[in-house]
Structures are given as structure tokens and as C-alpha cells.
Write a structure and sequence with these properties.
The complex is a heterotrimer of chains A (649), B (258) and C (278). With 649 residues, chain A is of the alpha/beta class. Helix content of chain A is 35%, strand content 15%. By secondary structure, chain C is mainly α. In chain C, strands 1-2 form a two-stranded antiparallel sheet. Chain C has a two-stranded parallel sheet with strand order 3-4. The chains are: A alpha/beta (649), B alpha+beta (258), C mainly alpha (278).
């Protein structure tokens, strides 16, 4: 077959965002020869889009902060569905991970005494987000990128080759994880530039590919977010966890249409921005749910005092967790109190002087000025919910980031599930990338270190490589495969239909009938996608790339739709109109997706069966000392009856 | 929404050759050039190669030249052109072409590797760094860089003189040197590395004739020339062309805090 | 292998370097700019040329540069014996009768050097006269380019010394402006139209001089820790604010210095009398 390049590595990291790069740095520092594969150019990963900051309880601004408080906030935000051990490790290790970035050259905004400044964010009790203006993600990715370069410079001094121990394969896409028996043996992918295939053999593969937002029409995510890692894991036999939880960020741009969905950072609200409807009312006061009643201000006056005196006032309801705010905006628009372009108003212009806005929110100022001709220092922004993040993901072991059921496979970052429960707090994703990126790199390196000689390393099966190559080339001969099945399909059209389907039928508010309809539409698209055809040749051909990504988006979309149909309650990033409240009985239940039947099963066209099998699993009970961090009155709102029985008074 | 038909010329081809292809394509209110390129892909030329990621001016992927000027396709609004105008889109012309609007920007990654990394101070552990905001402001401005490489593309030192590429790091990476030289805690000097001198000796600062095209094209509005390149030239002059400073350093008057 | 259509191989590329290097996109045009990119370099070249012509004429004229109490900024300080006597004015006969040409030449070297090595003027004449480059993304005509890496352009690095000299010159022109608060009989406490011209000129000269990039570097830019030098940090911020307008100040002061000289010329050559304000 046509495999141009076969290489041997110890650890292969798929994805070069925050989690992937942090994993690569760790693996290389622990002695593993590490390859990083990324779909885009090095340093362009979606992490650059993160604006607000990195949540870490360093206590630089309010010394009352510590990991326990952070843990508590994280669990509340995730409505107690979080994989609690992950949340614990995350809260404990985040400060170390941030400080370490400084030793690699990161320059965060400072407090007056020269420490890292921290800002307020939705759901965080104290100012906790280390930040650089509103471009924290860029700082993170650049710092990690430069750390990688510095390691390569080290290697160059020692070996004369920059890439002897750590190499970045830019603009390459992995389409299959290869296995020998149950164990990982490497990855198969193609180079975008040349269209040539490559096989990297390695005992450890870390998946760090991010999210799935490109399956939705209105999204803040970039083109890379096609659920590749989720699909790779599924196809390799690893299960996905709680895929119904998709976060719709409350504030995306709504106009002009071409930028609809682009993120408006939560810092706008953290720094004083308020939400108003077309009647000028700060409607968030009407949407504070019971579980949060004691923590949020009841009057505008109290809310406004909080910015200067957080110890004696409660926070404004604009800073509720994202799911609450997104639902509230959705409801306001639906009831006819929306802005002209179907959003609500987010206003900083009447809250802060113009120069302060320009200094604290420079890229927001720039973004609205350039893209929408709106001067945010003079007028309100129009915003509405946008698909932003998937809480669900590959089921992993909390401590080692190892994917369940596939030895040698690891996952970190957005692609891994569990950490954020049913809803992620702003700022927790960048810290998640660092904490679990490092852990994945560490345990991947350790796993590989135990398999250094030929006898212990899994071998690459040529039949798998040939099958993967055939699968990848299929779009070039779409007509030939199923004669009479119909003309080749345009992958762009299929993608648009998929996005429309997910947006309309499995979007922010879900209904049983619509989700069933979505599953039927997905089945139809699945059949048509088998005929997705492309023109031209293999060299940098976006139509071909999209045709291959469709497989992943369809698989992941089916997971989302199936899990969402199954969970008959509303919790965090999953809102059912027919089951509008949170149901404590669902608290200890995880929904686990796995691949049903062999990969090429034509019966997959059956919408009832589909390609995904869904299973309910009971979660591990939360450790008592962690539960003890909460008041009992709070726990009774969340925990199922049988979980409450064991609690001491 | 008011739509209209716009005339486009898009360069298609690869290293073997190519040319400008004519398209007439629908344009809607509020769109940017990248939207039009996407519409071409979806309807007319599915294999039209273009790089893009965030579509919000934050990642610096969709660099190309529009009517001869280096720009981000996602930040170039169609409203800046008249409806009669023919809009020409070509790949970056300072780098080797791969296909259509995609160029090989490997030059920049090579140059990035040539700049010695940040050297952490030996006596400070993680969490012990103390830096004042006014001391990090300058380097923070340079760290706004999204590495779109438009400055590298427009700089005539390499755009018009391929042979200068080995010797010249380009504005982006000279700015990186400046960023590290102004970093309040960089300890490169303790390892014997003088970054300002290296800028001149190793990274080709002398090639820059401060004609400011890098500043003109920067989509992040970084004042590359005034705040990075010229200060770096002055710092290099301190080391190499200023006998007073040299004399001062010989008789020990030079303070540790330059 | 399914590798279908190759793109049309219509090589539209003249052999050559720069944007016509064989690996780059084959585009025959040296640039594709559709705006009036040539306007700025042309205007710059025309403006600079006009000043060069005017100042050459005036500098070599050696006459009509003093009309009490005003001395032309081109001739201040006047350092030759041949200078017209100016009471308490800046003329010292350092150069004897052997100095045969205009005394302006002795002193003009310094402001000329300052402006010639100025970071803004460098940009202006590299673009305007040298076409290196004529405008952004417009190919330059030169085959080779070494920038400021070698003689003579490496000498641009002496800019800071001309800055020091420019400080002295600005000091003397300030003194001249103070002297302009006399009348033609050297009586203090008077002002004429010329005084206003001189005031405007000296304000612009100082603003231009202090907005210099070297100045910004010397007062604070060279520091690594502003927080340890609050006064110099403040100075650096001021210099920076002026520096953002360096181009405008360069042109404004160039025009004002020529105007001040021309004003003196008109009065000295008797075209009109200086209108007295009081």
C-alpha cells in the first residue's frame, strides 16, 4: 500500500493544544521520545481562543482561596456529576501548573505586589483566574510552544538534531489508532500538505484533540473541532462518558451572520458587564435557581456593590454558571424580549470608562470594532448562546488519564470526560489542560518506558494499515463503491445539514421527539456520507479533509443525541423541555457510549440501532472527606436518597 | 439582507505554476473575505486550499494577500471594497507556495528555533516570581503576537531578497529577542548570552532599515518598529557602537540593571 | 491511486529573485496593490527635496540671516569672524578670516546629521529616494540588499551622538528665542511677529528632539526594571508619548525651521518690517 513514512516513537500525542503540548513536554522530560501530531500549524490550536484565564486557587487576590474552595465550586458548577477524584486533583495541582508556566517565560498580568493577578469569573467564589488581558489562551499556547522549542534546542545541543527526541508533525491528521490485540500499537494518519500517509508506531498514544463544536451550526469552535479524538477512541474500543453534556456559552456574537457564534468572553461580565433585555431590565435576577439563591445578590444595588466589596455583598447573577445564563438568555429571546438580531444586550459601556474597557478587554473591543462595527465603549453588544464546549468525553482513569479498556491509550483536555461533570466553570478548562495534560504525558511515558524492547512493543498490523488507507481514499472514488446508490455527495452540503440538524434538534433546549428525529436524520446522513466524494488530488485538499472528518462528526453527534435522549432530566449542559428540573436520582448515573458492532457494518443505517451502544453505569461514591466540605443542607439538594443515607449528621 | 455579486480573482496552482482564476460570487451583509473563499469551496471549487482556524483574528492562520496587501482573510471585511472592484486574493508572496492560498511558512519555525529560549533565574522556584506590571508591559505587548507572519511576509529584506533569509530572523523573531531582552527576570546574561548583541550578530538586526511595513500590516496593532526593533537597535548600539557605555562598563560604572 | 486533476500548469512567472523566486506563487506582477501606494513616497521625496533645495540656497547664501533681534536658525550659533555682529547673540569668532564660505555650514552639520540619522527620516528617504521598498509589498528594484549591516549605512548607529549635539543646538535656539523678546534696538520686553514665529519653531524643535528614539532609550528605555526607577519610568513614558508623533513632529519642525529662516530673510532683505506687537 501507499504508506510513505513509518516511524518509531515512544509516545505519540495527537493534538497540539494546551493538553497535548503539556503532555508532550512532560513525556519528553521523563525521557520518552515524543511525537506531537496536529491538524493545524504548530501554535494555532483552538486553545488560543480561550480568553478569560486559568483557574487556580493561588489566593493572590483573596487569601481565603484554597483548593478545597475551588473543588467545591467545581462540583457545584458540574452539579455533582464530576468525576470527583479528577476535580480534586485538578483543584490541588492547578496552582503548581500555573507557576510552572512562569518559569517557562509566561507573563501574566500582575497584582500590585508583583504576583500573578487573578480575576472573578462565573461560579468561582473568589477571584481565581490567572490571566493576560483577554488573551490568556494565546499566552498559554505560546508559552508551551516556546517550552517545546527550548527542549528541542537542548536536544540540538546534545544530539545535533532538533527533532531527535521531540518532534511536531504539523498539519497532519490521525484517522485511526492502530492496535495489536487490546493494546495500542500506533497511529495512522495523513499529511495535509502532500496527502501522503504516515504510520507512527508507539506503545503510548495520548489523545488531546479537543471538542466537537463543529457539529453545531452556531459555535465558538474552530474547524478543527470535529470530534476526532472522541471518534478515534470509540473506534479503538474505548468508551465515551456523558456525551449529552454540551456547554452553550451564554455570550456569543449574534451579528453579522458570518461571525455568529464567535465568543464574547465571560470576563466582560466578570469585570462589570451586565445583561439586559429589550425592555432594559437586568433579567438575570429573575433566573437564580433555588440551589444558588443564597449565593447571589437579590438587588441591583447589592450586585453593584459586590465588585468593590465582595466580602459583604453577594455576587451579581450575571456570574451564575454558564448553563444558567445561557438558558435565561434563551428564555428571554423566546418570550420576545430579545435584541434586534435575536440575542440580548451585554453592556459595559455604561459601567466602565472607555479607556478602562479598552485596557481590560482589548480583544473584545477590537473584535466588535472590526467585525461588527460596534464600539463597545459606546453601545451595548448583542449576544446569544453559542456551542462552546463538550463536558462529555473519553472515559479515563482520574489519576493516570488512561482511557478505559485500551491499554496504552490516554486522553487529556476537552476530549477527556468526567472532570467537569454536567457543566464546566469558566477558567477550569485551561487548568484542566495543564493538570491532566501533564498527568497523561507522565503516565504515557511510564507506560512506554516499560516497553522499550521489540518483544514488549505492540506490532503494527499491516492489514489495519491497509484498511485505514482504503478508508481514507474512499472519497476519491465515491461512485465506484456502491453502484446505483446515487450520485456522489458534496461533503460541504452534508456538513451543513449535520450542523443544522444538531443545532435545531439537539441544541440548547431538547425535546424527546426532536432528538428521535435527529437520530433519523443522522442515519440518513451516515448513509449519504458513505458517498461523500471529492474533486482534485490529495495535495492540501480541504474537500477531502472534510469528507474524512464527517465520519467523526457523525459518530460523535450520534453519541450526543442518544445520551441526551436517554437522560430524562435537566442538569448543567443538558436541558430537556419535557423534564425541566434536575432529578437527584440521576446524580449517580453515568451514560457510557461505545461502538456497536464492527466499524463497517452496513446495518448502521438503521436509526434505531445506529452505531452507538449506550449503557448506564453507577458512579463511584464521593469520598466522605470530600463530601464533608459541603453543608448537609446543600448536599440534600444534589445527592440521591441512597447516597444521603450514609452521611453522618 | 442585501446581497450582491462580487468579482474575484483567486490564485490557484502550486510550485509548478498557476495563475489567477476568475470567479463571480455572492456576497452578503457583514461578510469577510474568508466567508467568500468558503463559499467558493462549498459551491465552486471544493479543493481550493486555504488555511484557517478561528475566524476571529486570534490564531493567525488565514494570512494571504488581498489586492496586493498582506492581510488576515477573516479580518478583511467585504465592506472595505466597492461593489465594482475586482478583489484579488493570492497566497503570501514571500514564502514558497504549497497549493492555492497555502504557503510553506517553515522559514518562520526555523527562525523561532534560532532564538535562545527564556532562561529562568536560578535562584527562584515556581511561585516565587515577583514582577511589577510596569516591568512586564513591554514584553506583554510583543506577546500579543498571533504569529500570522504577515510582518515576515511584507518585510522587503526577505520578500525581495530570498538570499537574505539565512541571515535575517525577520520582524517577528527580532521582536521575540526584544521581548526576552526586556523580560524582567530573564537570566540569559548569567549564561553569557547578550541578547542585544546577538540580535545584531546572529539574527540580522542590521538588515532592518526601519521602513515600518511590519507595523503597518500587524493585525494586532503591535508597534513592532517603534517598540521592539528600534529599542533593540539602540540596545545593540549600547554594546557595539557606544564607546561611552563601553568605557562605563570597563570602569564598573555600569549598573546591573540596564 | 486516485490523484485526479492537476491544477493548470500555466507558468506565468518571469525568472528572477524576490517575489519571482521559482518556489513562490507564479505571479508576473511585481505587486498587486490597487491603491495609490506611490502617493506617500512621492510626497515624501518631493517634500524632502524642496527642503534640500531651499536650505542649500540659504546655507550657502551667507547673507540676510540677521535682522535684529532675530537670527536665522540656520546661522545660530554663528562661529566665524565673518558673521554679522549680533549683540549678546550667539556669535563667537572661533573660525578666523580664513573661513571663506558661509558660516552656516559650520553649524548645520549637527542638525543635518541628527535628521539624517533619525529613525523617521531614514524610513522616509529609504522609501522616497531609495525605493527600498517604495511601499509595503511593492517589490524594490534593487538586486542586492544589505540594509544597515555595513559601511556606510552602519554609521546610522551614531544617531545618539547627533542627539546630544541636537540638544545643544536646541539650547542655543532657545537662547535665540529669548533674545527675540527685544526690539530692533535691543530693548527688552518687546514682542514682534517674529517672536511668535521663533516661539512656535523652538517648541517644535524641542518636541521633535525629545521625541527621538535615542532619547527615549537613554532616558529609560534601556532599563529592564522600570519599577526600580520611577522618575526615569515617568520620563520614558513622556518620551514615548511624544515618540508616537515623531513623524508629524519631524515634518512640522522641518517646516517651522525653514519658515523661521525665511521670516528672517524677508525682514533682513527689507521685504517688510517686523510687525511689532508691543
Amino acid at each position: 500500500m501507499s504508506v510513505a513514512d513509518r516511524q518509531e516513537w515512544d509516545v505519540v500525542v495527537v493534538g497540539a493544544g494546551g493538553a497535548g503540548l503539556r503532555a508532550a513536554v512532560e513525556a519528553r522530560e521523563r525521557g520518552a521520545r515524543t511525537a506531537v501530531i496536529c491538524k493545524s500549524l504548530f501554535g494555532k490550536a483552538h486553545t488560543v481562543m480561550a480568553e478569560g484565564g486559568i483557574a487556580a486557587s493561588m489566593g493572590n487576590v483573596n487569601s481565603g482561596d484554597n483548593w478545597q474552595v475551588h473543588f467545591r465550586d467545581t462540583l457545584r458548577g458540574g452539579k455533582f456529576l464530576n468525576q470527583w477524584r479528577m476535580a480534586e486533583l485538578h483543584a490541588q495541582e492547578a496552582p503548581q501548573r500555573v507557576w510552572e508556566l512562569e518559569t517557562w517565560g509566561a507573563l501574566f498580568d500582575r497584582t500590585r505586589d508583583g504576583r500573578i493577578s487573578q480575576r472573578n469569573f462565573g461560579g468561582h467564589e473568589y477571584p481565581r483566574l490567572a490571566h493576560v488581558g483577554d488573551r490568556t489562551g494565546l499566552e498559554l499556547i505560546r508559552t508551551l510552544q516556546q517550552k517545546i522549542v527550548s527542549l528541542q534546542q537542548e536536544d540540538f545541543r546534545e544530539t545535533g538534531d532538533h527533532e531527535s527526541r521531540l518532534k511536531v508533525f504539523q498539519e497532519c491528521t490521525v484517522t485511526r489508532v492502530l492496535k495489536e490485540g487490546r493494546k495500542v500499537s500506533g497511529v495512522f494518519g495523513y499529511e495535509r500538505e502532500s496527502g501522503r500517509f504516515l504510520v507512527l508506531r508507539a506503545p503510548s498514544v495520548v489523545i488531546a484533540t479537543g471538542g466537537i463544536g463543529k457539529s453545531f451550526k452556531v459555535t465558538s469552535n474552530s474547524w478543527e473541532y470535529t470530534g476526532d479524538g472522541h471518534a478515534l477512541a470509540l473506534l479503538a474500543g474505548a468508551p465515551l462518558l456523558n456525551m449529552e453534556f454540551v456547554q452553550f456559552h451564554p455570550t456569543g456574537m449574534v451579528w453579522p451572520p458570518s461571525v455568529k457564534g464567535i465568543l464574547v468572553t465571560e470576563s466582560v461580565r466578570g469585570d462589570g458587564g451586565v445583561l439586559r433585555n429589550s425592555e432594559g431590565r437586568r433579567f438575570m435576577f429573575d433566573y437564580v435557581p433555588d440551589v444558588f439563591k443564597e449565593k447571589y445578590a437579590e438587588s441591583e444595588a447589592e450586585a453593584d456593590r459586590w465588585y468593590d466589596d465582595p466580602d459583604h455583598n453577594r455576587r451579581p447573577p450575571e456570574l451564575l454558571p454558564r448553563d444558567e445564563v445561557a438558558r435565561a438568555i434563551n428564555a428571554e429571546v423566546k418570550e420576545g424580549r430579545g435584541s434586534p438580531h435575536g440575542g440580548v444586550f451585554l453592556d459595559v459601556s455604561t459601567r466602565m470608562p472607555a479607556d478602562v474597557i479598552r485596557r481590560r478587554l482589548p480583544s473584545m473591543y477590537h473584535q466588535f470594532k472590526e467585525l461588527a462595527d460596534v464600539d463597545i465603549t459606546a453601545e451595548a453588544m448583542e449576544v446569544g448562546p453559542t456551542c462552546h464546549y463538550v463536558m462529555g468525553g473519553i472515559a479515563v482513569d482520574s489519576d493516570t488519564a488512561a482511557a478505559r479498556g485500551v491499554p496504552g491509550l490516554f486522553a487529556a483536555g476537552e476530549v477527556a470526560g468526567g472532570m467537569h461533570g454536567s457543566n464546566r466553570l469558566g477558567g477550569n478548562s485551561l487548568s484542566d489542560l495543564l493538570v491532566f495534560g501533564r498527568r497523561a504525558g507522565r503516565y504515557a511515558a511510564e507506560y512506554a518506558a516499560g516497553r522499550t524492547d521489540e518483544g514488549t512493543r505492540a506490532r503494527v498490523d499491516d492489514a489495519q494499515v491497509d484498511a485505514a488507507a482504503a478508508e481514507a481514499l474512499r472519497p476519491f472514488s465515491a461512485e465506484a463503491h456502491e453502484p446505483g446508490a446515487g450520485p456522489p455527495e458534496n461533503p460541504y452540503t452534508l456538513h451543513q445539514e449535520l450542523q443544522q440538524t444538531m443545532n435545531d434538534l439537539v441544541g440548547i433546549i431538547r425535546r424527546e421527539a426532536e432528538m428521535k428525529q435527529a437520530l433519523e436524520k443522522l442515519a440518513e446522513l451516515r448513509v449519504r456520507a458513505r458517498r461523500a466524494g471529492v474533486e482534485g488530488h490529495r495535495q492540501f485538499n480541504p474537500g477531502w479533509h472534510l469528507a474524512l472528518d464527517l465520519r467523526n462528526m457523525l459518530l460523535v453527534s450520534e453519541c450526543v443525541a442518544r445520551a441526551a435522549l436517554e437522560r430524562t432530566e435537566s442538569r448543567g449542559g443538558h436541558t430537556r423541555e419535557d423534564h425541566p428540573s434536575m432529578d437527584r436520582r440521576w446524580r449517580p448515573v453515568n451514560l457510557v457510549c461505545s461502538l456497536a458492532g464492527p466499524a463497517d457494518d452496513l446495518a448502521a443505517a438503521d436509526p434505531e440501532r445506529g452505531r452507538i451502544a449506550l449503557e448506564r453505569q453507577t458512579t463511584e461514591p464521593i469520598r466522605p472527606d470530600l463530601l464533608a466540605l459541603f453543608e448537609k443542607e446543600e448536599l440534600v439538594k444534589y445527592l440521591a436518597d441512597e447516597e444521603l443515607e450514609g452521611l453522618s449528621e | 439582507m442585501s446581497g450582491y455579486e462580487a468579482r474575484f480573482k483567486v490564485w490557484r496552482g502550486d510550485v509548478a505554476g498557476g495563475g489567477l482564476h476568475d470567479f463571480t460570487v455572492e456576497v452578503h451583509d457583514g461578510e469577510v473575505v474568508l466567508d467568500i473563499v468558503h463559499r467558493l469551496q462549498a459551491t465552486r471549487a471544493p479543493d481550493l486550499a486555504v488555511r484557517w482556524n478561528c475566524k476571529a483574528g486570534k490564531c493567525g492562520s488565514c494570512s494571504a494577500e488581498v489586492n496586493g496587501r498582506p492581510r488576515l482573510l477573516c479580518m478583511t471585511r467585504m465592506s472595505v471594497f466597492s461593489r465594482e472592484e475586482t478583489i484579488t486574493v493570492t497566497p503570501l508572496r514571500a514564502f514558497p507556495v504549497i497549493r492555492d492560498l497555502v504557503t510553506d511558512v517553515g522559514f518562520n519555525y526555523t527562525k523561532a528555533r534560532e532564538v535562545p529560549a527564556f532562561v529562568p533565574p536560578a535562584d527562584l522556584g515556581p511561585g516565587e516570581y515577583r514582577m511589577m506590571q510596569e516591568d512586564v508591559d513591554r514584553s506583554q505587548e510583543f506577546r500579543k503576537c498571533i504569529e500570522c507572519f504577515l510582518c515576515q511576509d511584507t518585510c522587503h529584506v526577505v520578500r525581495d531578497h530570498e538570499e537574505n533569509k539565512p541571515a535575517f530572523a525577520g520582524p517577528r523573531f527580532l521582536m521575540r529577542v526584544a521581548e526576552l531582552d526586556m523580560h524582567p527576570l530573564d537570566a540569559a546574561a548569567d549564561t553569557g548570552l547578550d541578547r542585544s548583541r546577538a540580535a545584531q550578530d546572529d539574527h540580522g538586526l542590521g538588515y532592518c532599515n526601519i521602513t515600518k511595513c511590519c507595523t503597518e500590516v500587524c493585525p494586532e496593532g503591535i508597534r513592532i518598529t517603534d517598540n521592539a526593533l528600534i529599542p533593540l537597535k539602540e540596545r545593540a548600539a549600547d554594546r557595539k557602537y557606544d564607546p561611552l557605555v563601553w568605557l562605563g562598563s570597563k570602569i564598573g560604572r555600569r549598573s546591573r540593571d540596564r | 491511486m486516485a490523484t485526479g486533476t492537476e491544477p493548470p500548469a500555466t507558468d506565468d512567472r518571469p525568472p528572477g529573485g524576490g517575489v519571482h523566486t521559482p518556489t513562490r506563487a507564479a505571479i508576473r506582477a511585481r505587486h498587486l496593490r490597487t491603491d495609490r501606494w506611490w502617493l506617500a513616497p512621492t510626497a515624501t521625496a518631493a517634500g524632502l527635496l524642496a527642503f534640500v533645495v531651499y536650505s542649500t540656497w540659504r546655507a550657502f547664501a551667507g547673507s540676510d540671516y540677521y535682522a535684529a533681534p532675530y537670527v536665522s536658525p540656520f546661522y545660530s550659533p554663528c562661529l566665524a569672524e565673518s558673521c554679522e555682529p549680533m549683540r549678546s547673540g550667539p556669535n563667537w569668532g572661533l573660525f578666523g578670516a580664513w573661513w571663506g564660505i558661509s558660516p552656516a555650514i559650520l553649524i548645520l552639520v549637527f542638525p543635518l546629521g541628527f535628521r539624517l540619522t533619525c529613525y523617521y527620516y531614514r524610513k522616509a528617504y529609504y522609501r522616497g529616494f531609495w525605493a527600498s521598498p517604495p511601499a509595503c509589498a511593492v517589490a524594490e528594484p534593487h538586486k542586492r540588499y544589505t540594509g544597515e549591516t555595513r559601511f556606510p549605512l552602519i554609521l546610522q548607529n551614531v544617531h545618539r551622538y547627533f542627539f546630544y549635539a541636537a540638544l545643544l543646538v536646541a539650547g542655543i535656539l532657545t537662547y535665540d528665542t529669548v533674545l527675540a523678546f527685544r526690539d530692533e534696538h535691543y530693548a527688552w520686553g518687546h514682542m514682534g511677529l517674529g517672536t511668535l514665529v521663533f516661539l512656535a519653531n523652538i517648541a517644535l524643535i524641542w518636541a521633535y528632539t525629545l521625541s527621538c528614539h535615542s532619547c527615549r532609550h537613554i532616558v529609560g528605555g534601556k532599563l529592564r526594571h522600570f519599577s526600580r526607577h520611577p522618575v526615569r519610568y515617568r520620563l520614558w513614558q513622556w518620551a514615548g508619548r511624544l515618540n508616537a508623533r515623531h513623524m508629524q513632529l519631524a515634518w512640522a519642525s522641518l517646516v517651522s525651521v525653514a519658515l523661521a529662516d525665511f521670516y528672517v530673510y524677508l525682514v533682513a532683505s527689507g521685504v517688510f518690517d517686523d510687525p511689532r506687537l508691543f
